[in-house]
Amino acid sequence: MSKVAFLGLGVMGYPMAGHLVAAGHEVSVWNRTASVTARWGDAFTGQACASIEDAVSGADYVMMCVGQDADVLEVAGKAIPAMKFGAILVDHTTASDGCAKQMGATCSDAGIGFLDAPISGGEAGAVKGQLTVMCGGDQAHFDKAVSVIDAYAKAVKLMGPVGAGQLTKMVNQICIAGMLQGLSEAVNFAQAAGLDMDEVVGAIGKGAAQSWQMDNRASTMAKGEYEFGFAVDWMRKDLGIVLETAKKLGLDMPVTELVDGYYADVQEMGGRRWDTSSLLARLKRGE
């Protein structure tokens, strides 16, 4: 077992750090809000630290899950100088590939390994330890870190050099955005036509239209329930990264741009913390 630090105890990081304890690792944690750090320390057998430097001191692996590029650079800027030579920093934040490459270079200069390792699976996946992790970095660093990441993952894959994990997560978010808009329109259509959505899913849910979103969200969407983790604010942050990257690549993203605008409408409706399936609420606002 390893000595592992976890920086960032949000809705994803909090249970992820707990899974590391359950796997037998020696875990130290830090969070910007001290009360959250203390609460985690009361709930799990681990060390709740008042500073980033204390948390990462002597750690073999430092896992990080914060908000966005600026947060990654700020937290890592304090963590890296305090990390021991040869340790590995694993960033689970969904950030830009440019941020990942900057982090990779900084870690390399400090004699530290780095993986950009964004996650998919939402809050439920984090709680259950069933996340999908998309990694970018050196094979040697991945081979060392994968057994630690396995504590909260059902699938972990190295996608290429530093930055490849973030680019893969962008593909993931593009797919989800389009899929959820289609599912929202389908649910709205079914209800307007007088169909029972649960019965509809039972009829079509094993055919070509099947998806994780249909299996897990169609029924709750039909009931107007949008409290299942990954918030609209976060999705807009992610889609902003996607669209900025696409612009650099010279790509048109008409559907992604459209759905990003629809999520902006949901924010204006007061749904900033609703989950991403709340696109349906936008279609029903005139009813």
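Next protein, fold it too.
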Amino acid sequence: MDNSEWVKLEHHEGVLIVTLNRPKANAFNFQMIEALHAALRTAERDPQVRVVLLTGSGGIFSAGQDVKEFGQAAESGELSFRQHLQRTYNPLILKIRQLAKPVLAAVNGPVAGAAMGIVLACDLRIAAENARFVVGFSGIGLAPDSGVSLFLPALIGLGRAAEYTYTNQPISAEQALAWGLVNRVSSAEALPATALAWAVELSQGPVHAMGLSKRAFNRSVYPNLESTLDYEAHIQEIAGHGPDHQEGLQAFLEKRAPVYTPG
């Protein structure tokens, strides 16, 4: 599949609709990450694009990183965890936050791991009633990356962020709305039209002023985003070589519950 097929683009009344499209879980491989980078560069350069609407195809937003693909690259020695994040998700998260246009995530189903970081980096979020937010990393013995360690506590509080990181339990759309993790919730059937209508409404507003507001929010709320992403990469390199990840990954591949032991 050509890289452009991993991420589908559609223009509609000043809105660039960006759809993750890698069945069946829309899990990110290197080509899909690069395709999303390219889509954001298109949005940045095209003056006709005033708002970005990011969503997933099918009934899932994204399961996050394709663990099998990255595992093969790591085992072969081609890439370290730190190098992987510096090459992929760190610049992607920064690009979303630095894009001087609103980015709206329409979370059409479950989202986990690095994809959750991407969703949290967006300016606004609308979720389908059946959407579920899973931090995900601890499920394979890793620590949060892709900005999750910063965005999640900022949005729902440190105690809740710690609980859902450590337990890996899903956050429902209803709970996400109550906690401010998402701005709005819609029925699954109405989500595409509702999200697009909201994006079009935003595109008709003072987008330049919105971009400046976004810069102000970044400075006041996320002034240490870049250093946090760098530190996450450092921490993930440690976690990735630890016994918890080895057991967690093996359990994931064998489709069984992990058994963590001291040591």
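About the second fold: The beta strands are 7-12, 15-20, 51-56, 103-107, 111-112, 124-128, 132-134, 171-172, 184-186.
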